[in-house]
Amino acid sequence: METELVSIVMPTYNRGNVIEKAIDSVINQTYSNWELFIVDDASLDNTKEVVSNYINEDSRIQFISNTINKGANACRNQGAAIAHGEYIAFIDSDNQWYPDKLLKQVEVLNTNSSNTDFVYSKEKVINEESIKIIPQKAYSPEELMRILPHKNVVDTSTVMITKTCFNLVGGFDEMMPRLQDWELFFRTVVVYGYKGVCINEVLNTNILQENSISKDDKKYVDAIFYMLKKHNSYFSDADLISQIINSTIGEEEYLLLRVREVYSNDLSVMASILEKVIYTLQNKQRQFELLYRWQLKDKNEFYKEIKNKDIAIYGLGKWGELLYRDLKGLSAHVVFGIDREAEQFHDLPVKTACTDFFDIEVIIISVIDGASEIEKMLRPKCTGEILLLEDLIKTKK
Question: Where are the alpha helices (DSSP H) in the chain?
Fold first, then answer.
């Protein structure tokens, strides 16, 4: 029986062109005991007209219209404040749920009500360049506690949370310019100690729009500094700021400006941060140069000696993705991937480095930093060739 009412909050701003698919994905849920609050943040397009068609046909859907733009976090909190359900789920108006999303998450919360405060899932993230599954693995609650100080793996549109937990941690921080989901679930798990469970399935599709806040790198920089200020005792300043460099393009000058602003009264901290920043920038430049050289290669010539062999790819991040595309384009026989975290990669089986690889002819290490150490670790486990992608790029014509 569908006894638990799920309150769904959908913030929206100028998404009249895509919101129908998001609403349809809610209506098409196999779990039907829900209410949907669409909170419009003073849209200037036809969002209201699009939504009105649904309101007239389904009494479970309500439309709240703001007269001034408050931001997505304020809209989420606004919807959650009038929620009647014991469970709250969020969906952005450019996302689409899989049909069993609510059903599977309600089952988890009902079954583990004493030790689970929220449940999330994997999602398919689509932009103009790639399709990714995030997170790559289903983290245990203990792993989630360890990983959230370093990166976010919980997307808002994949979450169902108890209303009690959401209210006790204080909801979304309306001052966060970006990374709102990271701050909320970092606070929920690391600061307050609540537990989240990951369903090891893709239950949401996240289609990044051209004007998405997720593409605003200056807001990303500001969000990291806000996190550092709010939760300073939990973070390494230098490590987190290095993450900014690895996750943004072309905002290094703005980053250095913010470093000088924030740490002007603590020159020793500023010096250690700048040292890490310089190292990270140099490493990033080295990787850009490698990528440029790689893309100029004749692919048939580059892979000539290995493309007819059984190949495994070690490291399934951005370099592994590019390597896989090259090899598949040449119809090479890629047998499996090797990775510490990823549990799935396209249609390949994924193994961990704990395994022996005596049945493979070639392992290509696509990781750039630390590749030599990885080669030493793999050598006793493999009788075939072990090649470093960086060496191939540098030596092959």
Answer: 19-27, 47-57, 72-81, 101-111, 141-147, 163-169, 180-186, 217-230, 237-247, 252-262, 267-295, 299-302, 318-329, 371-378, 389-395
Q: Can you name the residues that pair with 313 across neighbouring β-strands? A: 337, 364
Question: Using one digit for the tens of pLDDT, what is the confidence trace for 25-68?
Answer: 999 999 999 999 999 999 999 999 999 999 999 999 999 999 99
Place of tokens 């007819």: 308
pLDDT, tens digit, 9 for 90 and up, residues 353-385: 888 999 999 999 999 989 999 999 999 999 999
pLDDT, tens digit (0-9, with 9 covering 90-100), for 80-102: 999 999 999 999 999 999 999 99
Cβ atoms < 10 Å from Cβ of 166: 24
3-state SS, residue 242: helix
Q: Which residue(s) pair with 120 in the sheet? A: 198
Nearest CA-CA partner of 152 in 175, 178, 128, 173 = 178
DSSP one-letter string for 94-109: TEEE-TTHHHHHHHHH
SS3 content of the chain, % helix, strand, coil (to 5): 45, 20, 35
Residue whose token pair is 């009788």:
383
- List residues bridging with 310 in a β-sheet: 333
How far is 335 from 348, CA to CA, in rounded Å?
Answer: 7
Three-class SS string for 254-275? HHHHHHHHHCCCCHHHHHHHHH
The C-alpha atoms of residue 352 and residue 375 are separated, in whole angstroms, by 14
Taking residue 241's Cβ as centre, other Cβ atoms within 10 Å add up to 24
- Here the contacts of 253-262 (C-beta below 8 Å, separation 24 or greater) are 254/218, 254/221, 255/221, 258/221, 258/222, 258/225, 262/225, 262/228, 262/229
Name residue 191's amino acid.
V
| 259-to-62, 228, 280 alpha-carbon distances in Å | 44, 12, 15
Closest CA to 322 of 137, 135, 132, 153: 132
Q: What pTM did the predictor assign?
A: 0.81
Buried b (16+ CB within 10 A) or exposed e, 367-376: bbeebeebbe
